[in-house]
Structures are given as C-alpha cells and as structure tokens.
Amino acid sequence: MTHSLTLRRPDDWHLHLRDGAMLRAMLPETTRHFSRAIIMPNLVPPVVTAAQAVAYRDRILTALPEGATFEPLMTLYLTEETDANDLAAAHASGLIKAVKLYPAGATTNSASGVKDFDKVRPVFERMAEIGCPLCVHGEVTDANVDIFDREAVFIDRVLDPVRRATPGLRVVMEHITTAQGVDYARAGGPDLAATITTHHLVINRNHILVGGIKPHYYCLPVAKREEHRLALRAAATSGHRAFFLGTDSAPHVDAAKEQACGCAGCFTATNTMSVLAEVFEQDGALDQLEAFASLNGPAFYRLPANDATMTLTRGAPVDYPAYIATSDGPVTVFDPGYPLHWQVD
Ligand code: NCD
Ligand code: ZN
C-alpha cells in the first residue's frame, strides 16, 4: 500500500471566498493547501465590472494570512448589461481569468444573472474571439422542470445551442453532478471542460434525505442518484483532461443552513485534499489525483502548473475541525461520513 504521495501543489477552480469577516476566516482554509483559485463573483452586490473585480481582489490580497503565497484568479459576473469592452480589457490585462454565467434565480445570489440568453450573445462572441473562458452554472430555472433534471435539461436547451451558435467559445461546466454532464464534457473537444466538487464525489441524494434531512449536504446543483455519483467518480479518477477540481466550497454560517429555508452550499476547503486522496485511493486511482487537482485545470486555463509540491502521508485518521469559527458564527466543515487517512504534510 502507498503511504506517501507527492504531487504538484493543487489549485481550486471554483471557490466562494465571500467578503468581510467571512473572507478573513475562510482564506486560511484555502491558502493552506491551494496556490490559486478561481474566485466566484456572487457577492452582494455581484462583481460585475472590472473596477469591482480590482476592488475585490485588493480586499482578498489585504486579508491574506501572513506568509501565504496565493493568487486569486478573478472572474466577472455576467449580466444582461455586461459591457463587452470592459470585459475584454479586464481579460487582456490579466485581471480576470473567466466570466461566470448564472441563470437568473439558479442559486445563491444569482438574481442579477441571465434570463434571456440571446441578450448576451454578443458578449459570448467577443469572449470566443479573445479566448476568455465562460464558467457556467448549468441548471435551468423553469419552475416546471424537476430539480433533479435541471442540469441535463440545461445541456440540451441552453448549453449545446449556445456552443453551436458560438464556435470557439471556451466553456467550463461548473460543478457537474450527472452522467449527462460527464458525457457531454468528455465529448466536447479542447474548448470544453468541467469542474467536479469534492462533495459530489462522496454524497448522493440519499445522504441528504435518508434518516432525517442533512442541511450540510444541501448544495446546488443538488446531489443526484448514486449512478450519477459513480459517473463523476469515474470521470475524476480517469485523468481525462476535461475534468478538474473546483471545490465549490461555499461557506454559510450554520444558522443560515440549519433553518426552515436553509442556504445551499457545502464547505469543503478545510479537508478537501484529505477527502480526495481517500476517494482516489478507494478507486485505486491515487496516480490520477495530480491530474485532477493540479494539472488539468491549469492546462485548460492556459496557465503553468504550480512548481511547488504537496505531500500527503497515509496514517491514523486525520484530525480536522468540525467547524471554522467566524465572527458571524460557526461554519460546519464537510463530513464525508468516514474517517480520512491522508494528511497533508
Ligand atoms: C453557492 C453559494 O453559496 O454561493 N452555493 C452552492 O450550493 N453551490 C452558489 C453556487 O455555486 O451555486
Ligand atoms: Zn459555486
């Protein structure tokens, strides 16, 4: 049995850092293990303009823990009013690495998202020209589409038509949760990729609903049937270039999750690398963890992989905190439901 594993230092290609006190509490949880992260722009108000992205990046850099070397990779939140020139300049200067598409109403703080995809077609065309990736929250929001079908329906009704209409548009399907998502991403060629979260490799919908409702397993897109979790596991552990880690670590204080209308989001930044090593070991694929967590993401984003390395060692069950304290209250850390044996050195 392998007892030690060294890989290039990983990056997180989908992360919610929030702002203010929450940002300060959350940053060390990510900077401890990750060199870079794609920072989600769904603040209140959202990060819509280059000027807002500069200001948010400055707040992140100011809040970095002492001695941390961490690069926040900024994104803009796409609205029907997004100015393609502002976006193109922000991309050309290196300020932003991607643009995030939220269908209006799909998830936390998505009210300013896109309702009419035709309205943003000129922006998609500009993004295709300049090679700026579009990170897509891929769920339809129609009230009459079942929540468990919303990803598959989005691929057929929105994503595939947009990609056909905009050749060259580079797309990351964020946090895929279905076999349909896996199949579509795998077949999409070099301009298509998909992030997979830590928690969707571990839980299916039974974990949320059987034996009492588990608010800390509720996130969007919601976890699906077991067959879908297995498809995600096969994709992540395959080493295929189209699949890489985006934790979608999305902190909400416990009081906001444990209530009659609880917020969506699993908080996994703290123990993600230990969970992933356990998962890849269970599937006999430890040799593919580096591709998933450290190589495929930078390759898609046309950035170098990190030079620094990380070593994980197998041993007695890892101690990790049950929650992270913030001045707004505790944030529960994702519990995979089994002990973790891989400790980051
Ligand atoms: C995210 C959040 O809380 O910002 N929640 C989640 O369940 N993933 C939003 C998102 O990525 O959908
Ligand atoms: Zn997210």
Describe this structure in words.
- The protein is of the alpha/beta class and 345 residues long.
- The protein has a single domain (4-344), classed as Metal-dependent hydrolases (TIM Barrel), CATH 3.20.20.
- It contains eleven helices and 13 strands.
- The strands form three sheets. The protein has an eight-stranded parallel β-sheet.
- Strand 2, helix 1 and strand 3 form a beta-alpha-beta unit.
- Helix 3 (84-92) runs parallel beside helix 4 (121-130) and helix 6 runs parallel beside helix 8 (226-238).
- The longest helix has 16 residues, at 150-165.
- It is globular.
- The model has no long low-confidence stretch (mean pLDDT 97).
- The structure holds N-carbamoyl-L-aspartate and zinc ion.
- N-carbamoyl-L-aspartate (NCD) is lined by residues 16, 42, 107-108, 137, 219-220, 248, 250, 264-265.
Task: Based on the model shown, name its key terms.
345 residues, alpha/beta, eight-stranded parallel sheet, three-stranded antiparallel sheet, globular, binds N-carbamoyl-L-aspartate
Question: What's this entry about, in short?
Answer:
With 345 residues, the chain is α/β, with parallel strands linked by helices.
CATH architecture: Alpha-Beta Barrel
- The rough form would be described as globular
Number of strands: 13
Instruction: Assign the CATH superfamily.
Output: Metal-dependent hydrolases
Helical fraction: 25-40%
Largest sheet: 8 strands, parallel
Q: How are the strands ordered across the major sheet?
A: 2-3-4-5-6-7-8-9
Termini separation comes to: 18 Å
Total helices: the number is 11
Write down the domain tally. 1
Mean pLDDT: 97
Order of helices and strands: EEHEHEHEHEHEHEHHEHHHEEEE
CATH topology assignment: TIM Barrel
By secondary-structure content and strand pairing, the structural class works out as alpha/beta
Broad CATH class = Alpha Beta
The whole-angstrom Rg is: 19 Å
**Strand content range:** 15-25%
Ligand roster: N-carbamoyl-L-aspartate, zinc ion
Low-confidence regions = none
